[in-house]
Write a structure and sequence with these properties.
Layout: E1 2-7, H1 11-22, E2 27-31, H2 38-41, E3 45-46, E4 49-50, E5 55-56, H3 60-78, E6 83-91, H4 95-106, E7 118-119, E8 132-142, H5 144-152, E9 157-160, E10 168-170, E11 175-177, E12 180-187, E13 207-216, E14 224-227, E15 231-236, E16 239-243, H6 257-268, E17 275-285, E18 294-297, E19 304-308, H7 314-331, H8 345-350
Parallel strand pairs: 1-2, 1-12, 2-9, 6-14, 12-19
Antiparallel strand pairs: 3-8, 4-5, 6-8, 7-8, 10-11, 11-12, 13-16, 13-17, 14-15, 15-16, 18-19
Helix pairs in contact: 1-7, 3-7
This protein binds flavin-adenine dinucleotide (FAD).
The site of flavin-adenine dinucleotide has 39 residues, from helix 1, helix 2, strand 13, strand 17 and helix 7.
Length: 351
């Protein structure tokens, strides 16, 4: 009998699988990546700052510490390269904005914001930086396609198929799915948890996002990410990733004309050179109403678990919480109340 079945093939499922491996837990991973684009199209960025409020992102220092350890160790285990540390360039569009930045760099965000103020120079001529800019350290990105492809090779038991919930038999001390017997099952289905009859009561607030990959000449960004209402960073050669949009209505993976127009508008605020759009993709982020992950045990079936709600910040959250999940599963260590699915048990009773 296996320890677990993992349902999903995105960031949540693969991060959890790698963490389970570290504890010699056996699992079978079952998923059909074609059902959801989310993890594969994500820019994979992490950033410790919430620019809108100029505050530190929730537990940023703890999450970033953990993600560095996790992804660099995953690179070694898979003999692949997907982890890149970067710096964010934040241009100032007013004196007030610059002064507020300086204040925050001295008090509140000093661990993440560079204390210096930089003046735009000839190197930035094709970027929209009116005069001066600040830098955020401790940022970076995971090349999500490379990470997920590398993980595929690590799973001993790996099924590429749609999971049919009606075929799951739940017993008190084990579960059976088709011919697979395991002690328990953990669902990492992203926004598609809405189709899971065991966990469809979880209050998601999923949000569609669209991204471009463009080709352009003369954009002098190497490891920097330019951020102003959107982001642009270099993939390789003349290829750049640009994003993203937010749409709470059309929850599907179809790129739209509105999305393309919005991205073009945002790009006009980032670069001054012509470009070709090479790819335009969309996906649905598994966001939650209270903007916290949703992790833990089913209220009735103690061998059914959920690991979801990574929202807009999966890259930062997944390593930290997959480790927490393993400690919760193995040692019964309580999950943070903020992320424990228990906070929604009343929704299960009501509906
Ligand atoms: C445009 C965009 C940009 C983003 N940029 C960033 C970013 O820069 N940084 C960041 O941290 N996050 C970003 N995100 C968010 C990030 O992608 C998510 O937090 C993360 O990928 C969610 O992973 P997940 O595994 O929970 O969900 P998903 O990636 O949706 O994975 C769910 C998996 O379950 C599978 N599945 C579901 N139901 C079934 C079933 N019945 N049978 C079989 N398989 C099933 C799906 O096919 C999929 O493989 C972005 C998202 C989008 C859309």
């Amino acid at each position: 009998m296996l320890d677990l079945i993992i349902v999903g093939k995105g960031l949540a499922a693969n991060t959890l699988a790698l963490s389970l491996q570290e504890h010699q837990l056996s699992y079978c991973i079952i998923g059909d990546p074609s059902l959801s684009n989310c993890s594969r199209i994500a820019a994979g960025l992490w950033n410790p700052i919430v620019f809108k409020r100029m505050t530190s992102s929730w537990k940023a220092d703890e999450f970033i510490k953990e993600l560095k350890i996790f992804y660099t160790s995953a690179e070694k285990r898979t003999a692949s390269q997907f982890y890149t540390e970067r710096t964010i360039i934040k241009p100032f569009f007013s004196v007030e904005e610059k002064n507020f930045w300086i204040k925050k760099s001295q008090n509140g965000l000093s661990q993440f914001i560079d204390h210096a103020i930089y003046t735009a120079n000839a190197q930035h001529k094709n970027l929209v930086i009116p005069d001066s800019y600040g830098l955020v350290n401790n940022c970076g990105n995971i090349d999500m396609q490379s990470f997920l492809n590398a993980c595929e090779d690590l799973h001993a038991e790996n099924k590429n198929e749609v999971f049919d919930h009606s075929q799951l038999r739940v017993n008190t001390d084990h579960i059976v799915y088709k011919n697979i017997k395991a002690k328990c099952i953990v669902f990492c289905e992203g926004h598609l948890v809405k189709n899971n009859p065991f966990f469809n009561w979880i209050p998601m607030n999923s949000v569609k996002g669209e991204v471009f990959e463009i080709e352009a000449e003369g954009i002098e960004l190497e490891k920097e990410i330019l951020n102003h209402n959107a982001f642009i960073f270099k993939l390789k050669d003349k290829r750049f990733k640009v994003g993203a949009t937010y749409n709470w209505k059309e929850l599907n993976d179809e790129p739209t004309e509105n999305g393309a127009n919005e991205l073009k508008e945002k790009l006009a605020g980032l670069i001054k050179v012509p470009y070709n759009v090479l790819e335009h993709k969309a996906g649905v982020r598994p966001s939650t109403l209270d903007r916290r992950p949703i992790i833990g045990q089913h209220p009735l079936h103690k061998n059914l678990f959920v690991f979801n709600g990574l929202g807009t910040k999966g890259v930062m959250l997944a390593p930290y919480f997959s480790k927490k999940f393993v400690h919760f599963y193995l040692n019964k260590e309580a999950l943070d109340a903020e992320v424990d699915v228990k906070r929604f048990y009343s929704k299960f009773n009501n509906g």
